[in-house]
Amino acid sequence: MIEIKYDEKLNCLTITYSGKVDAAQGERFLSDIQKLNEYIMTSLRTMAGLDLSVMNEARGLELRAASKKYIETGLIKLEGNFAKLTNEGKLLADGIAADLFFTK
Question: How many angstroms from the chain centroid is the CA of residue 22?
Fold first, then answer.
């Protein structure tokens, strides 16, 4: 189950995962990688952007490195610890998010 709430204190969306999703054929458990990729997919689409500080340091650095080509081409901008899609980047959101997904 995914719960998305606006956090006024942080001025951003917070996403909580229960780790279990009801599916038509029973229950499905999300791995840590799947949860992280869901966070990337959903948070990139928000005005607040993707908060890199919610990840451990290694994952945050890895994501920053993967985002570099999108920053250089003007599709993502960094504002503090947040990676945000530019207007041009929003047109390519699915492809950018998929490219930033972790596989291991």
Answer: 22
Q: Which domain holds residue 30?
A: 2-100
Q: Given the DSSP bridges, would you call strands 20-23 and 76-79 parallel, antiparallel or unpaired?
A: unpaired
Spell out the alpha helix ranges (H) of 3-92: 32-43, 57-72, 87-90
- What total number of domains does the chain contain? 1
Q: What backbone torsions phi and psi does residue 44 show, to the nearest 5 degrees?
A: -60, -25
State pTM to two decimals.
0.68
pLDDT band at residue 41, thresholds of 50, 70 and 90?
Answer: very high
Name the nearest CA neighbour of 100 among 59, 63, 47, 45: 63
Q: What is the CATH number of the domain that holds 50?
A: 1.10.10
